[in-house]
Amino acid sequence: MAGTAFAVAATAASVAWVRISADGHIYTEQSVPEAPVALVLGAQVYDDGTPSPFLAGRLEVAQRLLETGKVRAILVSGDHMHWEYNEPGAMLRWLTSAGVPSEKVVLDHAGFDTYDSCARAHRIFGVQEAIVVTQTYHLPRAVALCRRLGVAAYGVGDDSVKRYRVPWLISSTREHGACVKAVYDAVSGRDPVHLGRLEPGVDEALAR
């Protein structure tokens, strides 16, 4: 009983921290302040290299942000730990096929989770300010972590995939546990799984 009570309390406190940290920093596409770069967080890619509807929804938002001048470059961050599975590559292909110039897209191949994507955006790619793009249920956690890690982040969320009711519900429910991990990561200040050298890609994309 005590263990259950502690878990419930820890989850509630973590969710509260995420929501408070993100409060006032989540916008619609139309109202979001301009920022140099959109940070698109990775999600599932199918075996044929096609982005899942959840990932495609995020990419559609980023494409519109670039087209309307809200951002001047797009940083796609996702899992490419194994050669045969490449989220950033799939994101680049989707964006360029939709008409986004390839020189405006920067790839982060080591965005293994939300914390790593935010930390690497700041520490490896030098991002100081960004619009974070993901689904709305994930957005408060993403914004909270990015702001904790040094990125002045605004969030714009995608709701287009709410039509996939079961996956949406499952993912939304899992966010409670993910908030606990987010607090642990934020407090520990751990390094990302992979750091590596500084990357000039974002600065180069902005200069073009």
Structural commentary:
With 208 residues, this protein is of the alpha/beta class. It has one domain (26-207): Rossmann fold, CATH 3.40.50. The chain is built from 7 helices and 6 strands. The chain has helices spanning 2-22, 53-67, 87-97, 114-123, 139-148, 165-188, 201-207, and strands at 26-27, 37-41, 73-77, 105-108, 129-135, 152-158. It has a 6-stranded parallel β-sheet with strand order 1-6-5-2-3-4, with helices on both faces. Helix 2 (53-67) links the parallel strand 2 and strand 3 (73-77). The radius of gyration is 16 Å and the shape is globular. The mean pLDDT is 95.
Task: Calculate the mean pLDDT score and round it.
Answer: 95
CATH superfamily: HUPs
Instruction: Note the gap between the termini.
Output: 59 Å
Helix content: 40-55%
Shape: globular
Number of strands: 6
Low-confidence stretches: none
Name of the CATH architecture: 3-Layer(aba) Sandwich
Listing every helix as H and every strand as E from the N terminus to the C terminus, the arrangement reads HEEHEHEHEHEHH
Name of the level-1 CATH class:
Alpha Beta
Classify the beta-strand content into a percent band. 5-15%
The total domain count is 1
CATH topology term: Rossmann fold
Number of helices: 7
Main β-sheet, spatial strand arrangement? 1-6-5-2-3-4
Radius of gyration: 16 Å
Main sheet summary? 6 strands, parallel
Content-based structural category: alpha/beta
InterPro entries: Cell_Envelope_Assoc, DUF218
Domain DUF218: 37-156
GO cellular component, one term: plasma membrane
Protein name: Membrane protein
